[in-house]
Amino acid sequence: MPIEEEPGSRRQQIVALLLRQGPMTIADLADALGVAKTSLRPQLDRLVLQGWLDRDRRRKGPGRPADVFSASDRSRQDSAQQTMGELAWFLLEEVADTETRSKVTSVLDGVGRRVTSRLRPIIGDGPPSERLRRLSEYLSQRGILNDTKESRQAITLSIHTCPYVGLADGHQQICAMHRRTLADLLGAKTAEHRCRHEGQRCCEFAVNVGSSKPASGAERKRKRPAGAKKKTKRRK
User: Fold this and answer.
1) What element of type H or E holds 211?
2) Is there a domain that residue 24 lies in?
3) The CATH number of the domain where 23 resides is what?
4) Type and span of the H or E element at 67
5) How many domains does one find in the chain?
6) Are residues 65 and 115 in the same domain?
7) Of 194, 185, 195, nearest to 165 (Cα)?
8) Which of 221, 74, 189, 226 is nearest to 142 (CA)?
9) What is the CATH number of the domain that holds 128?
């Protein structure tokens, strides 16, 4: 999930140009963007380090080989995710227009279960604090800016870049789905204290580490000792 940024940013301009034109040297990019090579090079170096661009070196005649930049697989995936985001919006709008509110909630509950199923192997088991640490790392890897703050009874998860930006603005059920998904992944009661879509600066969730949620059927089966047999009532 990409970090939110203003449309037309320099990174977007460079990636869009490389996607359209193919690999380009720094001189070609500077001419196309109308900027000096000296100011563009640090930006290109940073984008290479962040994984947005690939760099190769090609020799054209005598002299030092020239750096050639191209859009990376990450850039192509990010572009595809933006298109998928629009498709998800249209799908949600269609469901909201043609189905009842309870049906929309039911659909989003199913989406939440799919998200939980996909992330559970990544987040794993263990105490809520350990799960939250792994979840925070995963979100950061996906470009979602977040912070955690721990106290004796609860851990606060602050998400500064909403993974459902755009979609949740008109459909608050998505925020409820997000909260339930977090609770299922962390195995603890989770409450949303702040919501970015209600004018707050971030989405803030309080994870109650003092009382864990009951284990699901799959988790109980996974935790049952090897060789243990299910007790059955003896008929009289």
Assistant:
1) strand 203-212
2) yes
3) 1.10.10.10
4) strand 66-71
5) 2
6) no
7) 195
8) 74
9) 3.30.1380.20
- The pLDDT tens digits of the residues spanning 68-116 come to 999 888 787 776 666 666 777 788 888 888 988 888 889 999 999 999 9
Q: Are residues 117 and 206 part of one domain?
A: yes
For residues 36 and 108, membership in a common domain is answered with no
Q: Name the token pair of 22.
A: 């193919």
| pLDDT tens by residue, 198-224 | 878 788 999 988 755 544 444 444 445
- DSSP, res 90: H
Residue 232: inside a domain: no
Distance separating alpha carbons of residues 14 and 67, to the nearest angstrom: 15
Q: How far apart are CA 162 and CA 168, in angstroms?
A: 9
Asked whether the beta carbons of 74 and 11 are under 8 A apart, the reply is: no
Q: Answer yes or no: is 78 within a domain.
A: no
**pTM tops 0.85:** no
pLDDT of residue 218: 46
Is residue 176 assigned to a domain?
yes
Report CA-CA distances (Å) from 198 to 57, 158, 173, 175, 177: 49, 15, 13, 11, 16
CB neighbours of residue 14 within 10 Å: 23
C-alpha distances in Å from residue 78, one per residue of 34, 52, 64, 119: 25, 9, 33, 20
Where in 108-202 does DSSP place strands (E)?
146-150, 154-159, 188-194
Q: In the sheet where 53-58 sits, what is the strand order? A: 24-25, 66-71, 53-58
DSSP code per residue over 36-60: -HHHHHHHHHHHHHHTSEEEEEE--
Domain that holds residue 120: 100-214
Structural contact between residues 176 and 184, judged by C-beta atoms closer than 8 angstroms: no
